Structure to design on (208 residues):
């Protein structure tokens, strides 16, 4: 998260490559094993608030276009859109896909965010830099992913974006700690576009 501009493979932006294209490839190659009852859960984030897909320049090739938060946000939007389209592909065989915002949890994910920035953003408080109110423990952070992988309450809700062990409500603010889901993450047209764009980039996923 929030890494410096890094190109991997054939010039792919690293957040998009690590968070989306890598998992897209793994999932597409595992697809033959995804039988009835299987679930795929993508770790998205409230960070999706920070960016829709940047279709005109997803890899930040334009000079000076790179922004660390935008790159993280786009990659998390991609994770959710991929789950949305994958669900439609898997549904006829009784398998499903979901995406999850785990909550805000202090983990090594924040290693590229300097401590002074974590303090300024209010992620840590007090002289001991303890997690701010509203942050979850790692165990609590794992709960929604486990719920998405197992809960019968999700039957009939394939492709949903989840948080706090529930289907997320539409976001009513730009407060990522409050959460919710932005409309671009629920856009089925964009989800299909991303799927085919990713299949073209990776060479897998055209047929599941
Ligand atoms: N923590 C939060 O508040 C939060 C909030 C919303 C969403 N999420 C999402 O939850 C997922 C798990 O995050 P986490 O909080 O559990 O963090 P974590 O414990 O730091 O796990 C992140 C994992 O990603 C790997 N990784 C980091 N940089 C990488 C790179 N450039 N290439 C390949 N692998 C890399 C790490 O491996 P190495 O350490 O070996 O590099 C580690 O296994 C992430 O997708 C994150 O976006 C987390």
């Amino acid at each position: 998260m929030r890494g410096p501009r890094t190109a991997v493979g054939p010039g792919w932006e690293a957040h998009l490559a690590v968070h989306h294209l890598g998992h897209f490839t793994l999932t597409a190659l595992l697809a033959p094993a995804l039988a009835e009852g299987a679930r795929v859960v993508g770790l998205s984030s409230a960070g999706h608030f920070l960016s829709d897909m940047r279709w005109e320049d997803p890899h930040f090739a334009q000079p000076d276009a790179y922004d660390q938060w935008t790159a993280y946000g786009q990659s998390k939007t991609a994770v959710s859109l991929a789950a949305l389209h994958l669900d439609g592909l898997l549904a006829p065989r009784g398998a499903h896909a979901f995406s999850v915002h785990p909550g805000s949890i202090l983990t090594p994910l924040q290693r590229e965010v300097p401590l002074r920035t974590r303090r300024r953003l209010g992620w840590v408080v007090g002289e001991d830099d303890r997690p701010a109110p509203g942050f979850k423990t790692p165990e609590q952070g794992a709960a929604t992913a486990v719920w998405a992988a197992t809960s019968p309450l999700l039957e009939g809700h394939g492709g949903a974006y989840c948080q706090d062990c529930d289907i997320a409500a539409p976001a009513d603010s730009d407060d990522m700690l409050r959460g919710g889901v932005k409309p671009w993450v629920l856009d089925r047209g964009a989800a299909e576009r991303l799927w085919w764009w990713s299949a073209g980039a990776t060479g897998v996923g055209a047929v599941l």
User: Anything to note?
Assistant: The helical segments are 14-30, 68-90, 115-120, 138-150, 188-202. Residues 1, 14, 18-19, 43, 45, 101-102, 104-105, 107-109 surround NAP (CB under 6 Å).
